[in-house]
Amino acid sequence: RKIRTTRVVDWSVSDRSKAALALVEVSYEAGPAETYFLPLAISQKKEADQIRESSPTAILAGVITPDGPGALHDGILDDRACTALLELIGDGNELTTRLGKIRGVAGQSLDGTPRRDLPVRRSSAEQSNSSIVYGDRLILKLFRRFQPGPNPDCEVERYLSERVHFDRVPPFAGSIEYDSKDHESSTLAMLEGLVENEGDAWRWTLEEVERYYETCAPVPYPEINVDAPLDPMDLSEQPPSALAREHVGLYLDAAAKLGRRTGELHLALAEATDEPAFSPEPLTAQEIAALFGDWRQQASAVFDALKDSVSHLPDDTIEPAALLLSRRREILDRFRGELNQASAYGQRIRIHGDYHLGQILRAKTDYIILDFEGEPARPLAERRAKQSPLKDVAGMLRSFSYGAYATLMNWSARHGEALVRLERWARLWERSTAAEFLRGYREITAGAKFLPADPADFRRLLDAFRLNKALYEVLYELNNRPTWVRIPLMGILNL
Predict the structure, then answer these.
(1) Residue 74: left if φ>0, alpha if ψ -120 to 50, beta else—which one?
(2) 472: closest CA among 322, 353, 309, 299?
(3) Which residues contact 316 (CB under 8 A, 6 or more apart)?
(4) Phi/psi of residue 120, each to 5°?
(5) DSSP E strands: which ranges in 167-252?
(6) Closest-CA residue to 369 (of 478, 258, 246, 451)
(7) What is the pLDDT of residues 266-280, one digit of tens each?
(8) 306-346 per-position pLDDT tens digit
């Protein structure tokens, strides 16, 4: 959106680092205003020149000071300002602002951790926030877009780390909170322990799938496998096929382990507690019916957008798009139907909310789960809401689908190979890994109150979450990556 004006709403100055912490309101030509958390610092001489060369867009203005000319810039590029943020948390200090205060809150895992003299660097990872890394010990995540209230990433990670001692998340080390008379305490930044890892599961998956296609491309898909079960739920109830074991190999075990870790996460979040924000609540048939109604409206909007865009899609995407449009009524009917009022549909609990392979770190053949912030574009209340954990399960199943088909598209483009010839191998990989993930998840969560008691209800609700997620992906790809629209289209048609 086009910016109309900006206004500093509130601020405080850190005398120790000569940096400022500001909340800046941005008004646009269209739509509501937003507020952003913006640390500010001034650099001079060689430091200013270095920032002008390496990060010119981080500079707000040139300045004249008693010590000479300099640059006013994003504060996270100043090591002293970054160290001051860490000390603010570790010392539990407060900074007075015009309208309230900014205070540091130390977490249990910060005890005994040195806070001074740790080298500072900025994370280059693709993300919607900004991260500062301190040595090999800590990482501070700044939540740039300010929204009043607890940030779910900070809230959930602290609960898992300090209350239920779930060790598959980074240890919570502290936060920076903003208090004002106008609204409840809000999270500006979160500090966590830096976990030794081999990278995220998404990148590792792409490498594994790349090797899979290299092996399978010269091999005709065996016709004997045509009558194999197509649905991951059915596949999860029997051992992996010999074909899957031969070609997908060790990734099957990795997917099963990730399923178990996901189940353990949900069990931890569903524990009985006296904290209202984390206490499980029943999920009723009326609530599911309301959810289905919302999804039906969203699906109609997706079909309208797809219809308007179909003539502009890549050639290999037009056929699946037309096929999907022809089945509009059938797909919308998936979100209709009477629900058994007597069934136990499980519970609403706190969940991850934006669960996919990019939110998982590989750590010594195991996993660490990150980023409980939910989808950052959504309102904070929605991201903190309790939901069925099957939303997370569906998100990961869709992530496996993206791993299979995104790699297939890239591989085919590089090798001049027809997509259609290898799609059956792609479906084998996707369904086999999804089945093993489901097997591991269901083994750990067997009998859990937060899941539908009837397997038929489990399947129906999971399929509805998967379909809703894939339809959302169609709209996202139409707006951002039209060449990738084929991935969610194939996902929906396979469903």
Answers:
(1) beta
(2) 299
(3) 419, 486
(4) -110, 135
(5) 172-180, 183-193
(6) 258
(7) 999 999 999 999 999
(8) 999 998 998 889 999 999 999 999 999 999 877 777 678 99
- Residue appearing with tokens 């200090």: 93
Centroid of chain to Cα 375: 6
Question: Which residues, other chains included, contact 102 with Cβ-Cβ below 8 Å and sequence gap of 6+?
Answer: 12, 21, 88, 94, 95, 176, 177, 178, 179, 188
What is the reported pLDDT for 129?
84
Residue 137 amino acid letter: R
Give the gyration radius of the chain's Cα atoms: 25
Rounded Cα distance between 192 and 110, Å, is 9
Report the distance separating Cα 255 and Cα 250, nearest Å: 9
* Threshold 0.70, pTM exceeds: yes
Buried b (16+ CB within 10 A) or exposed e, 201-224: bbebbbebbeebbeebeeeebeee
* % of the chain residues with pLDDT over 90: 78
* Alpha carbon 88 to chain centroid, angstroms: 28
Report the run of H or E that residue 413 belongs to, with start and end.
Answer: helix 390-415
Phi-psi group of 149: left, alpha or beta (phi > 0 → left; psi -120 to 50 → alpha; rest → beta): left
> How far is residue 399's CA from residue 255's CA, in Å, rounded to a whole number?
12
Give the separation between CA 287 and CA 252, rounded to whole angstroms: 35
The conformation of residue 382, written as its DSSP 8-state character, comes to H
pLDDT greater than 90 at residue 125? no
Please state, in angstroms and rounded to a whole number, the distance separating the CA atoms of residues 172 and 356: 21
